[in-house]
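ok so i was messing around last nite and threw this chain in just to see what happens. nothing serious, just curious
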Amino acid sequence: MSDLEAETKALSSRVVETAKLKINLEATIALGGLALGWQILALLTPDFVIPGWEVIFRHILQLKPSWIVLTTLRVFVAIMFSFVVGFSAAILLDTSPRLQRYVDPLLNVVMAVPVICWILFAVLWFRGVEFRIFFVLFVVCCPVFLVDMLNGMKGIPTDWKEMVHSLRPKKLQYFQKLTLPAVLPAALTSWKVNLSLAIRVVTIAELVGATSGIGYGLVVAQGQFSIADIFAWTLVLVAILLLTQFCISYLENRFLSWRDIA
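result:
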């Protein structure tokens, strides 16, 4: 019986690896086709309309690395703080349904406010540029973390909760053995969504009032009518997002490999 289980597990692993290889091949073909199509259009149009890849990469080398690092730090500091606050608030609301009934309407109102409104509020309310950007990112990302984490906790089956409670665990043990593993898929998905959201929001926030960062670089490029610089900054943003998404996907494959086997 053990040999059969080992063979089944090995076969499942090979199937998963084959599927991943196929997905990677398809992704490479799709991106390669996009790059080729772009280059063909660049050959048919002037550089000030659609610059070729050689022009874009030449302008990328001229970008300020400090602005790229600064924007990345702004995103990760704000999104990490948003995750901690959102996760903590979700735990509190999960243990207090009455409190949740008061918080849910307020949460819906906050999430209904457009990003541009929060940016204008931040400009009018706060003097410091860094705190403005942090505030906008926090107020946009934290509610998403809170809702996703809370939904993950609400999705834990009652039978599991009763079974764990029957062992009389401490609160920390209950969190480590049941809550954390149960909400991990929702947490990683929420990180993917919020990273994509934060990259776009921070760029808009930097467009208003900032004197550094990728968003400000886009403003400078617009003032100089440099379409190549705009595409260069855009490519950097896409690269940052793809890199962070790759890291989250690696964590998913590392900690949630049972989903592929299942």
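not much to say yet. Residues 2-44 form the longest helix (43 residues).
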